[in-house]
Amino acid sequence: MTDQEPVLAHEARRISTKQAAELLGVKPETVYAYVSRGQLSSRRSTGGRGSTFDAKEVEALARRNRREPAEGSPAAGALSVRTRITLIDKDRYYFRGVDATELAARHSYEEVAEWLWTGVLRPGATFTAPEASVAVARRAVDALPEHTGPTDRLRVAAIAAATADPLRFDVSEQAVLGTARTLIPTLVDALPPKSPDHRDCSSLAHRLWARLSGREPDEASLRALDTALALLVDHDLAASTLAVRVAASARAHAYAAVSAGLGVLEGPLHGAASGLAHRMLLDVLDRGTAAPVVADELRAGRRVPGLGHRLYPGEDPRARVLFGLLEEVPRAAPALAAARDVVDTTARHVPLHANVDLALAVLTASSGMHASAGETIFAVARTAGWIAHVLEEYGEAPLRMRPSGHYVGARPPQPLPEQ
Question: Residue 133: pLDDT above 70?
Answer without folding.
Answer: yes
